[in-house]
Amino acid sequence: MTVAVPAHAASNVEPQLTGPQLADIEAQRKALFQKMLAEPSNVDLALQYAELSSQTGDLEGAISALERLLIFAPQVARLNYELGVLYMRLGAYEQASTDFKAALASPDVTDDIKTNAGKYIAIADQQVKGDYLIGTATAGVRYQTNANGGALDPFISLNGIEYQLSASALADPDYNAYMTAVIQASHDMQNQGDRFNLDASLYLSKYRKHSELDTIAGQVEVGPVLALDKYGLKGATLQLIGIASVVELSAVPYLYALGVGGVLTTVPGPGASMQTRFEYIWEAYQASVDRPDADQLSGPRARLTQTAQVQANDYFRLYGTAYGERKVGEVGYQSAWEAGISAGAKIAFGAGDDVPAASLDMQVGVTKRVYDESDGVTLPEARNDKSAYVQATLDIPLTAKTSILTIAGYRTQISNYEINTFDDASLTLALNTDF
Amino acid sequence: MRVGLIVLGAVALMATGARAETVGVAAAVNQSATGVAPGSAMRTLTLGDQIIHDEQIVTNNQGLLQILLADGSSFTVGPNSSLKIDSFVYDPNANSAKLVATVGTGVFRFIGGVASKAPGGVEINTPVGTVGIRGGISNLDFSGAKPFHIDMVYGVGVTLSSGQKIIGNLYHSGYSIVIDPNGKAGVLKTPPEWSAQFQIQMAGSNSGNVNGNKVAGALGNTNKTKAPKEEKGDGKTASAGDHLGPVATWGQINNSDLKNVTARYDGTYSADLTYTGPSTHVPASSTINNNPFALVYSFADRSGTTYFGLLHTGDPVPSPTNGSNVTLYQLVHNTSGHGYHLAPYQVFIPSTASLTSIKIDVDSPAGRGFATFGTSTTTGGALATTAEVNGLFLNTDAGVAQAVAGTVDTSVTILGNTFDLNGAFAGNLTSTTPPTP
């Protein structure tokens, strides 16, 4: 009894071709396979078959053909190198490293193989080692047309009575210097893909005029990442996290938060990923001289976020996010339901030999927030806000690990509570480095 | 062990549900592999031979064979291995296949074709249970050199069943099911040395049928290397620029200038040695497991005498501490002017040394080496009158083999007392430093 196999299951990775081109190459490959059975020592046939198999995404077929040649000619550097590349594409890093090392040990190794194999061995060995610490740091300067999120109109209506806002409540431009650092430490639990992760982020900003906005914020997420391959969900993981964060504004404690969450990541197909994140956080806001009512925001926040991403090819990625959130404060007018969606695209271009490709990332998003109750002052109705933003980020690499970021953005919020209606355009220039 | 080119007839493709006699083709053969089909005499398998259903395939200690099946699946059968394809059914129209095989001792690599893409498509009966492979590439090692293990190099899953019970389950690349001597199965991350060892076992020596230059040229190598010369008996020399392969054959050695060529191969060996003799200071027996050793070729020029020998580095050596001789071999140019032969060469280990390690360099043209014990260094002293280690290296026409094995049958003289040293050793070599002129 034979076992039926869906046609798409024949490839290991996404084919490099599509449509009629793919069908044509598949037909050529099948014909080549029959010739190869008749002439198994024919090097040209084997290499052609390996190349076509690689194009159709059947990397196992390519590997089988090349490893057959290895039986005859084990000392060919290029052969071992190409096998290493195929195993890297499959994610079989241990085998890839072994093949690259065999290439380096071959008597006919060329300079380009030495260079590339060396790089790949470092990547593969890092993957095999399992534990890793990675991070990124960014430092930059940002200009905002409305740094304090102030109202656009100096006159607002409070319960039908018009008031003139003080200057400090109006939109005011400002510069700020900022720095962010994000690290991830990951421990391989040696249990077929299970890991234990710690993610930490730090944000610092210093404003030229509005020192009340100077911020120090830090967040830590820690917890296991469980591989779900054992349940037939190839590449999927479930991460359980504990979350802790602290925010200071103008060197005064503003927020302490503690929570738990979970992140489910699935791989519906080659180049695609989906992530569902849920978090439940208890927030304790601190009242201060500048923010005497801040503690009214204290309470739980629950948020559900769904993200989808598709890497269409080496140069183009699409992504989108939708979220829903419930925030409960100490008072009804600080409690709200919120939902939003965003979409983006990232285009890579101009990769060099030693630097990654530059990229342009564009995002747009909209949110709606509806509060539970009126604040009893502004309007009889509860507050509701609609906001939208657009942002473009140009990333120009300087080296393999550093790049210059230029970020332009615009955000607008329209609220039935006029004091909360504002817009803000920003321009940021930053230096980013990975480590 | 003939490796020849034979044109293969077409492999019959099977209709749905029908079993056919031919299950695959010998797509690659290096050194010796034999097949015994039901009701047939044993045959030596050659390149292009059709493999028959239920044919028992056996390789010798240098044999390497790849069987290619019609659905694209392949088995690479390593040295000292046995395999039988019990059934193979492939329906190309439905793009479906099922494969059942039985393996005995040995090492194998399976690369999945259509059959492995669906659950239950591939079943391999092994000495430790039934292995199910889903969508991928797996190594199977039942050679006994290490614990039995099944490695998932890549794929969706590998299961090991004993009867109806699944005793091992892999779902992540880079992990192995390991079976202990009691038959208990566990899962661990595949040690790097297992992958390295498979790499060595699954790659053949240059057979001459498909030479490295053709492959290199077809792959677009810009720095072509001359193929090793085939063995010739006329003593004709090749050019001084010729390289030896990582495992040089005696033909290559005999037919090249060898001038200033060096190469080093590292590996591990195990040995069981027993001593008999008058002194109680000598241990009665010792077992050496996984000790590092190296084989070094160092050639001065064709007309001179040069050496290669056993370098034993690293771990402590449980050998006599009172002092003994270690016999090495030197490669001596024949007086006839052609070729080389092995001649014994001995190094005396002083009795006063604290034996924590041994390192013997044998590239001195004076015929003596340096022995290093712990932190002290001394030159070789007086030699014993008799000592010979037979079969230290497999000196076959195929070359000084990657697998090293032999017996030790010698006597050593220590401070005037003669002891007998007997035993067997086995090990494997890996080229770590390619031959350089």
Description:
The complex is a heterodimer of chains A (435) and B (437). With 435 residues, chain A is an alpha+beta fold. Chain A is 22% helix and 46% strand. Chain A contains six helices and 16 strands. In chain A, strands 1-4-5-6-7-8-9-10-11-12-13-14-15-16 form a 14-stranded antiparallel barrel. Chain A has a two-stranded antiparallel ribbon with strand order 2-3. The longest helix of chain A has 20 residues, at 19-38. Chain B has 437 residues and is mainly beta. Chain B is globular. Chain B has helices at 192-201, 212-218, 250-254, and strands at residues 22-30, 33-36, 43-44, 50-52, 56-59, 64-69, 74-77, 82-91, 96-103, 106-111, 122-126, 129-134, 137-142, 148-154, 157-162, 165-170, 175-179, 185-189, 262-276, 285-298, 306-312, 324-333, 340-349, 359-361, 370-373, 376-379, 395-396, 399-400, 403-414, 417-436. Chain B contains three helices and 30 strands. A nine-stranded antiparallel β-sheet of chain B has the order 4-1-6-7-10-13-14-17-18, with no helix packed on it.
